[in-house]
Amino acid sequence: MKKKLLALCQNLESLIGVSVSPIFPGSAESFYQQASSDRFCTICPYRQKNEFYTHLYGLNEAYRWNGHFIYYCPKAMTFVAVAVLDSNGSLGGGMIAGPIAMGDIQDIACYTDYPQVHEAMRKAPVMSTVQVRQLSELMSATANSLYYESFQKKRSYDQQKFLNSIYDMREKYMGEQEHYDYILSAESQLCELVKNQDRINSQDLINRLLGHIFFYHAGDLTDIKARTLELIVVISRSVIARGADVGEIFRYSTTYIQEIDRCESIDQLSRWLSEIINQFIAVSFDYLDAKHSDIVYKSMEYIRRNCLSRMTLEEIANEVHLSKSYLSSIFKHETGSSITEFINRSRVEHSKKLLSTTDLSLVDIANECCFGDQSYFSRVFKKYEGVSPKQYRAFRKKYS
Q1: 290-399 has which fold?
Q2: What are phi and psi of 84, to 5 degrees?
Q3: Domain 2-144 adopts which CATH fold?
Q4: Residue 7 and residue 11: Cα distance in Å, rounded?
Q5: What is the pTM of this model?
Q6: Tens digit of pLDDT for each residue in 162-176?
Q7: Which terminus in the chain has less CB density within 10 A, N or C?
Q8: What angle do CA 3, 7, 12 make, to 5 degrees?
């Protein structure tokens, strides 16, 4: 599978002129080995970057939806992820194409203060929104033509640890009151571990909880399913407290209720549950930062496209399907500035073009850029550029 996928990536890259790399869940080392050593991500100054998990987020979203997904990296470059399935219909791996400068490169490059990054952005392939969408559909159709007999064992979840937890419970059999006390205590502890981003101990505690549930109910599949769903609810709340999207988690939960009914044996249930736990762990620990970056830059793109109209925070939040308060929070965390500040900065960038290329009055430019009046326009402009609009125009004319 890996050889076929690598060959496909190489062929696509040669044809479309965009870097295309294979990616496999749980195999970061393989991804970095195959990726180009001079790729854009190696010079990215973003302090929280994790290149593999950013692309793993894109791959996971591609698997969830129509097999392909378009997303942004923390520096507003565009990537396309395409999922490749194994013979069982599970996520076997995928392809990542990018970086791509989607739209006007000036709108992207003007928001970085790093000359090296600025130059790399200008060298990236430039595509329109339509072309990027067409690329994702082409890659998806190509990936769907592949057939694989099998794929490597499932990632992350260690089945042996889970079995060992069941055996350990035999040595520590407890009465009904002790059982419920243990469950409540462990669930409370799990919430704290997830909140504190302690992935290793979270996974270990989940293993022990599952082992306890499976052993205590002595193989009664109906009781085990009921307790398992209760545990999933607890984990869901912990992940939401960590910052995962509420609507997304609820959609997961609805699917789980339908899927668990189809499990007809302990073995089948344990395999299914291991996948669910992995998904929650990934949402909480692996994909969250990447998802936030993607949402922020989708918001930024929407603001750039609409900065010459009187947009509201509610309109922006609706565009990315988040609440106003949650979007404001992650936007501030990711960019260091508020949405209002970014709107003003976008309007100032547009006003600079008008000051440099037209003879419009400052009043007209202030109105066109939605600043309301010339006085406010001048204050905001000087805040970001260090000079007044009039001084900026005189300087540009003198040296143009």
Answers
A1: Arc Repressor Mutant, subunit A (1.10.10)
A2: -120, 125
A3: Beta-Lactamase (3.30.450)
A4: 6
A5: 0.52
A6: 545 544 554 455 566
A7: C
A8: 150
